[in-house]
Amino acid sequence: MNNPQNMSPTEVLRVKLEVLRREHRDLDEAITALQERAVADQLTVKRLKKQKLGLKDRIQVLEDQLTPDIIA
User: Fold this and answer.
1) How would you write the chain as a 3-class SS string?
2) Is the pTM of this model over 0.90?
């Protein structure tokens, strides 16, 4: 992987975005696994879902920063 000091700001944002997407995917899998259990801990599931929504918001912010504004 590139040295962060040699990466452009856009490359840094893309790396951060990929890390957040991976975390979001991992949380989704954890939630699914918990819900498939006979006795799911609903409080834990609720907390994971809240954390997943927070990641989704952070992902959206980074995607907006990477997408150039287009004046229609």
Assistant:
1) CCCHHHCCHHHHHHHHHHHHHHHHHHHHHHHHHHHHCCCCCHHHHHHHHHHHHHHHHHHHHHHHHHCCCCCC
2) no
